[in-house]
């Protein structure tokens, strides 16, 4: 990146406050920085009291930490959002069609648009799902599409999260916090509400219930337990939807149905929103060592008497090599040009691509195809010589494990620092709900921000923070 | 409701009640140490005994003294019954049953934990002790207040209350059991200053001095105190009061769920056979034997509840 001019979402290219931020900026200029700092501390206190924390693994005492919250909102105009929504909807439809196809006829392979081994040899491909059609034909009930921006009209999809996207509780609690701290902002800015998410989620999940469920399907959230890093979110969502939060040891397969142990005996569940990985779902069908899952749950699923959200085997669409085919995938299933762009991606499995990547490593970002959370990646421009050498060796040893992308000049949004406003790089994860009744995108999402100056890593596990994300009504 | 949730609620409230009782015990112990009546070591020994952790204490310390005893009861991570351990356990359970709690109850519990963690991070200096203990008791009270004021009166509330009163009955029974000999009607020591101190300790450790005076007059005497702690129907920490609360909530569960379970029958039996005795009957039966019997019954009811409401399987 270095000299590439960076687009700031509040200040543009330094040519004055951009329109969506005008009202906010007027308010901000009238505020006393000292009072705002006090408010920032107040927000942290609120988060701590509410218990919005994540657990940090690998410490003696499961430590709970706060994800830093920055009080400057990230603001998106209604027009910008409309464009994004259309692109997201198109992409999510294509992903569902793709998942159905690869577990059935594999037309896309037959058409020669994706090499066969990309599917069959993919670690995230789930052979047990072959020929299985989930209730309502929905695979990704909840999706998070990670977007980055490089200019006023340039958005790119960075990642698709079809497995178990997390972070939605922060979207909701960030808004709640802003409403409590600065209610006046919401009377001067027309911000579209996000608070309907839990109700929408419940509705969407219920609409995906199997035919065997009655008029009012029983929905439950499944968590690996209290020590999981996202436990707060699991209990938060169950609480907000008014459904039970279950663990593997609350569940049992009885008479061909998945049942939970209640104070009055076992009760059947129709839809399980599981926040545990495929591998741990069913010790009989997947990892036999799993103490988190339910023996036989996959058999109930295959018999069509249970909805698992998201469906097992959806993880393949999170794969970064598959990602590189997403433009073809969108076109193949929708017959349309993709509305949202992919970041150009070199698949290191291909010899020419690998040669290019090795020659230009200092300018590229290299990622593992199955990696997530910002781990196991190389950011060329800021990497040390040692890191570069290490990745050269890794790339040569296992080229198919990596993809590479150009370093994008990610947009910035100011954060509130001791020295006033200061630009930091951001990304955006909107949350998408799919059911046979349609696709629902909550106007907003989770904005993650790299708190370190110049840093491009926004992950909360590596020092990132969050912002409230506003979508305005134009 | 999930069996696991009922379990979590039951233990969350037991742990909170225990934290508060232990804090009160420490206050009582401090008080005795300050007034220097009686032997301090003996008193701390009986405080530890009442808390049910004397044996464990002795595996960590060679002698009983105030400093060690207070630290053990207040902050020790090695003592699962220390105030800090209980509050952590209560909060852990609250996280587990978060979906059953109102926001107010959760926040009060979380705040209690944060205050405890903060004020018990280091050894508490003597001069801060009264303040810290008071604060801990108040925090437990705030959880109870939020529970009372905001929770729907359904099975969630019933399990919370059953946990509270089982723990409280257990605590009161232990307090009496450790000191039962000072309540026995003997001619010799009545009215001596030693006994007055002991009776005072008994009442203080259940926050019952004022209540006793109101109900029984200013004169401390063993028979009245024994009645007050066991059979009194208005004293919120007496065995009879706790039992009637347990039974009440179990009856609500019964009508809610439409089945009569063994645990309800057991609570009913306890109420019938032991709580209806007169204080003379109790003394005839033997105060110590009576308390032992009640303690056993309380434990058995707790165990049966776990089975009846599928806490574990």
Automatic annotation (TrEMBL), chain A:
Q: Boundaries of each Circularly permuted ATP-grasp type domain copy?
A: 73-450
Signal peptide stretch:
none
Q: Which residues form a coiled coil?
A: none
Name it: Putative circularly permuted ATP-grasp superfamily protein
Q: PANTHER family recorded for this chain? A: BLR5612 PROTEIN (PTHR34595), SLL1039 PROTEIN (PTHR34595:SF7)
Pfam families per the record? CP_ATPgrasp_2 (PF14403)
Species in which this protein is naturally found:
Sagittula marina
So where does this one cross the membrane? Answer: none
Q: Which InterPro entries match?
A: ATP-dep_Glu-Cys_Ligase-2, CP_ATPgrasp_2, UCP005522
From TrEMBL, chain B:
Please, which domain of life does this record's source organism belong to?
A: Bacteria
Task: Quote the InterPro entries the UniProt record gives.
Answer: ATP-dep_Glu-Cys_Ligase-2, DUF403
**Which species does the entry assign this protein to?**
Sagittula marina
State what protein this is by name: Putative alpha-E superfamily protein
The record ties this protein, via Pfam families, to:
Alpha-E (PF04168)
Residue ranges of the DUF403 domain? 1-309
């Amino acid at each position: 990146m270095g000299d590439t001019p960076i687009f700031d979402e509040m200040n543009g290219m330094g040519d004055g406050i951009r329109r969506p931020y005008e009202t906010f900026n007027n308010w901000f200029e009238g505020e006393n920085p000292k009072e705002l700092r006090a408010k920032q501390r107040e927000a942290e206190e609120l988060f701590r009291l509410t218990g919005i924390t994540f657990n940090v693994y690998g410490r003696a005492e499961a430590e709970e930490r706060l994800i830093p919250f920055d009080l400057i909102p990230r603001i998106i105009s209604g027009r910008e959002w409309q464009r994004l929504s259309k692109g997201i909807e198109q992409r999510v439809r294509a992903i569902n069609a793709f998942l159905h196809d690869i577990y059935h006829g594999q037309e896309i392979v037959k058409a020669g648009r994706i090499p066969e081994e990309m599917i069959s040899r993919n670690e995230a491909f789930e052979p047990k799902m072959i020929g299985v059609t989930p209730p309502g034909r929905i695979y990704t009930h909840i999706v998070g599409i990670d977007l980055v921006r490089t200019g006023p009209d340039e958005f790119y999809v960075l990642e698709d999260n079809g497995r178990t996207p997390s972070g939605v509780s922060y979207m909701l609690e960030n808004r709640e916090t802003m409403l409590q701290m600065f209610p006046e902002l919401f009377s001067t800015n027309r911000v579209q509400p996000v608070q309907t998410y839990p109700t929408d989620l419940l509705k969407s999940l219920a609409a995906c219930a199997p035919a065997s469920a009655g008029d009012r399907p029983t929905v439950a959230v499944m968590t690996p337990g209290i020590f999981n890093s996202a436990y707060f979110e699991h209990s938060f969502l169950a609480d907000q939807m008014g459904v039970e939060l279950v663990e593997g040891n609350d569940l049992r397969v009885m008479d061909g149905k998945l049942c939970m142990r209640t104070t009055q005996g076992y009760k059947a569940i129709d839809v399980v929103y599981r926040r545990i990985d495929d591998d741990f779902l069913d010790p009989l069908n997947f990892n036999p060592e799993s103490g988190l899952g339910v023996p036989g749950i996959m058999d109930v699923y295959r018999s069509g008497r249970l909805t698992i959200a998201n469906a097992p085997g959806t993880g393949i669409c999170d794969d970064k090599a598959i990602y590189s085919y997403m433009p073809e995938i969108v076109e193949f299933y929708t017959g349309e040009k993709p509305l949202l762009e992919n970041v150009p991606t070199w698949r290191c499995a291909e010899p020419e691509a690998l040669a290019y990547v090795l020659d230009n490593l200092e300018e590229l970002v290299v990622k593992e195809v199955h990696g997530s959370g910002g781990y196991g990646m190389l950011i060329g421009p800021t990497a040390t010589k040692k890191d570069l050498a290490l990745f050269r060796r890794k790339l040569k040893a296992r080229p198919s494990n990596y993809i590479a992308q150009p370093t994008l000049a990610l947009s910035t949004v100011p954060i509130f620092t001791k020295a006033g406003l200061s630009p930091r790089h951001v990304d955006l994860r909107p949350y998408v709900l799919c059911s046979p009744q349609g696709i629902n995108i909550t106007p907003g999402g989770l904005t993650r921000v790299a708190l370190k100056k110049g840093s491009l890593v926004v992950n909360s596990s590596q020092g990132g923070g969050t912002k409230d994300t506003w979508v305005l009504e134009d | 409701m999930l069996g696991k949730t009922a379990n979590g609620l039951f233990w969350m409230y037991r742990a909170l009640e225990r934290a508060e009782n232990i804090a009160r015990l420490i206050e009582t112990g401090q008080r005795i140490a300050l007034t220097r009546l009686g032997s301090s070591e003996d008193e701390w020994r009986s405080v530890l005994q009442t808390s049910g952790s004397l044996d464990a204490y002795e595996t960590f310390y060679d002698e009983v003294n105030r400093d060690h005893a207070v630290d053990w009861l207040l902050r020790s991570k090695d003592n699962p019954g220390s105030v800090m351990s209980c509050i952590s356990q209560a909060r852990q359970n609250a996280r587990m049953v978060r979906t059953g709690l109102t926001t107010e109850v959760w926040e009060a519990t979380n705040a209690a934990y944060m205050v405890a963690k903060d004020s018990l991070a280091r050894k508490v200096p003597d001069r801060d002790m009264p303040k810290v203990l008071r604060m801990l008791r108040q925090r437990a009270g705030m959880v109870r207040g939020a529970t009372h004021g905001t929770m729907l009166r359904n099975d969630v509330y019933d399990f919370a209350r059953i946990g509270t009163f089982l723990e409280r009955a257990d605590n009161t029974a232990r307090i009496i059991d450790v000191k039962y000999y000072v309540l026995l009607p003997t001619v010799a020591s009545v009215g001596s200053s030693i006994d007055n101190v002991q009776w005072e300790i008994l009442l203080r450790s259940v926050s019952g001095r004022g209540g006793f005076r109101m109900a029984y007059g200013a004169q401390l005497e063993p028979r009245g105190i024994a009645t007050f702690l066991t059979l009194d129907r208005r004293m919120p920490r007496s065995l009879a009061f706790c039992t009637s609360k347990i039974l009440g909530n179990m009856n609500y569960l019964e009508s809610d769920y439409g089945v009569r379970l063994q645990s309800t029958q057991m609570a009913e039996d306890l109420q019938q056979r032991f709580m209806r005795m007169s204080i003379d009957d109790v003394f005839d039966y033997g105060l110590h034997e009576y308390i032992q019997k009640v303690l056993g019954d309380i434990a058995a009811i707790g165990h049966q509840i776990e089975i009846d409401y599928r806490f574990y399987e």
